[in-house]
Design goal:
Length: about 375
Amino acid sequence: MKLCTLLRNANLILPDRNIVTGILIEDGNVSKITQDRIDADEVIDLDGATLYPGFIDIHNHGAIGIDVNEASAEDLAEVSIFLASKGVTAWVPTLVPDEDENYRDAIRSIDEAMERQNRSPQAQILGVHYEGIFANENMCGALRPKFFKAFRNRNEVLQLPRLKNGIHITTLAPEVEHGIDLIRELVRSDWTVLIGHTKANFEKLDKAFDAGAKHLTHFFNAMSGIHHRGLGVAGWGLTNDEVTFDIIADGIHVDPQMLKFAAEIKAPEKVSLISDSVLPTGLGDGEYEVWGEKISVLNGKTQNERGSIAGSVITILDAVKMMRYLGFSETDVGKMASLNPAKLIGMEKTHGSIEVGKRADLVVLDDNSEIVSTFINGENVC
């Protein structure tokens, strides 16, 4: 039986404002937002600490020495525990292009991890994200083109293994062969389709948008940029008011001032923070084997043997700190780290904000934006 818990004296980050108040948690959900003294099994005085909705990471390849492509269910649970310690309450394991057999193994592991996860205090896995399976070879970044797929008929899509339950995301380039038909087919099959690893022109991007792909993956990275003779994919994303994007706020993938510029021009309501975290995250500088090649990490920057940045070694907490440093309000950062990702994957009715009736997935930060505690489904897990 779950406890009834009252969190008092919190700087509560709501979707439209922040107020000093408290919340009552019952049966794993937020049941009241109030500063009244209420009889509860447990009363925790947060003494003015900031209470955010739990962070949601929709693009994460692994951490603490574990790579999602090769992870067992037990490995994924270890990553989930690590992420919870960093304020992430939900995440989407993200696969890079690989052998079909490895996809099947990875999906089995994610299925098994999702079946077990409610028994352990850990960030909840929401589904799977296939990144770059259908991508432009000239914009591959750290991905391996030898595993890219082509779309020729409906059965090609169905070859991507699906989970028993959970959301399915894919990032693709709309200019691949029959790319617009591919987007339509995926959308019909309840996939969330994102645009990335692409140099598509405006006409192709507009067709992709009309087909159901309305979001750009790791903005500025692995896409054609803004130039004075052409706006590129990035320019399309900034000038189309209905397009949203996610971005890696580590100060390496995108210069901090460009981060600030892009998020302000687009508006925080349309920006999601992602980690693009890879295996070395949480382990420090050094050399690591990732995706069949050596990746070095020096001063927090990854680089593969081809000279490309190969993912990040941050968590969403680091991205939150960066955006706060750049001057964004706590309310705006709460949207970028929680509500916007939840909306993108269609889970905003239960996740992404502190509202009555929603899951009590919460993170408490001190004045230095360091973790005080993380609550998942109302349980204080760290």
